[in-house]
Amino acid sequence: MIFLIVSTHSSCLNNVEEVIEENPIEDFCKTRSFSLHVKTIIDNNCIQCHGQGGNSPNLTTYNGVSSNANSIKSEVVSRRMPQGSSLTNEEIQAISCWVDEGALNN
């Protein structure tokens, strides 16, 4: 009799719907784009030094940014760049997400 009660009760637990929680970081990353987010961050914080005739690498074009994407991510995550100022955590996360998602021209 006890076995019947335990097995009946445990089978009910298996029929509970699984709650799928949203991942806010993943959702944030999926919505980051070069043209809307990363380019703005680069333009406002990097091209003063990494623009035409400035320090290498030149970050004025998508090709310049994308070919240096991993390096840019490393520099901003470690907070070595931009020199003389700092990015917000959201800006750093936007660059990191964009690089991790393949540094697409989107």
Beta-strand content estimate: under 5%
Rg:
23 Å
For the secondary structure, the number of strands is: 0
* Uncertain parts: none
Determine the N-to-C terminus distance. 64 Å
Mean pLDDT: 86
Number of helices: 6
Structural class call reads mainly alpha
Note the main sheet: none
* Principal-axis shape: elongated
Give the topology string: H per helix, E per strand. HHHHHH
Helix fraction by DSSP (H/I, runs of at least 4): 40-55%
Summarize the structure.
With about 110 residues, the protein is mostly helical. The chain has helices at about 1-15, 25-30, 35-45, 60-65, 70-75, 90-100.
Q: How do the helices and strands line up, and which of them pair or pack?
A:
Blueprint lengths: L1 H12 L10 H7 L3 H12 L16 H5 L2 H9 L11 H12 L6
Helix pairs in contact: 3-6, 5-6
Question: Which terms would index this structure?
Answer:
mainly alpha; elongated; 0% strand; 54% helix; 106 residues
